[in-house]
Design a protein that fits this description.
Length: about 220
């Protein structure tokens, strides 16, 4: 009887996805802030720009093959909501953070080999950024070179993030900064957190960015 129950439980669990064929995305210089020179950050930015379009095409194909939303068919908040719902349903099919070999956490993590899931997560975050840019041209991809963020050792510092010029810049901030990777990587690391299970911070962030809510531009 116990063997029958075990086989039933094993059969009822969703099969894990094999990501070994997913194309890795390793920046020339992983990390953020003072761990990178500005020249290294610029090299990352150049590589990121050169590969963005191709990676987003690959991501679209992968999502469609795995029951995900089509980023070309859905736009803005509709895409973010659909992607969040898909993630909640399918996160268990991705390699879990707790089962990965010991490693440096985001944003210093490797994104290939046993950590290939991080390439996928980065591409998902970029797809949310792309849907924001298409809906609100104030936003653009760029390096966060803010001196205050560097001094405060912010994870966004010297990394590629979404930026928007502020209408009324201050000595402390000249640009709005939105780091979508931070949200997606956190939700993968802590999939049982109430914020991920019961809320949808992805579509909230996208809706706020598109509307300019909380941003001075």
């Amino acid at each position: 009887m116990m063997n029958l129950i075990q086989r039933w439980l094993a059969g009822s669990a969703a099969a894990s996805w094999d990501l070994s064929g997913y194309p890795p995305f390793e920046l020339p210089h992983p990390g953020s802030g003072a761990a990178l020179t500005e020249a290294q950050a610029q090299q990352n930015w150049a590589y990121w720009q050169a590969t963005l379009a191709g990676r987003q095409r690959l991501l679209r194909d992968w999502l469609l093959a795995h029951g995900g939303p089509d980023p070309q068919a859905l736009q803005g908040t509709a895409y973010a909501k659909a992607l969040n719902a898909w993630a909640k349903a399918n996160w268990p099919r991705l390699p879990a953070f707790a089962r990965l070999p010991r490693h440096k956490p985001w944003p210093d993590c490797a994104r290939s080999g046993p950590f290939i899931v991080y390439s996928l997560l980065g591409d998902l975050a970029a797809s949310l950024g792309e849907t924001i840019i298409r809906a609100n041209g104030h936003w653009r991809w760029g390096l966060n070179l803010d001196a205050t963020d560097l001094a405060d050792d912010m994870a966004t510092s010297r990394r590629v993030v979404l930026l928007a010029d502020l209408t009324h810049p201050t000595p402390e901030a000249r640009e709005a900064v939105l780091d979508l990777e931070a949200t997606i990587f956190s939700d993968h690391r802590f999939p049982d957190s109430p914020g991920f299970v019961h809320l949808d911070s992805w579509s909230t962030a996208v809706a706020d960015a598109i509307a300019g809510r909380h941003y001075d531009f």
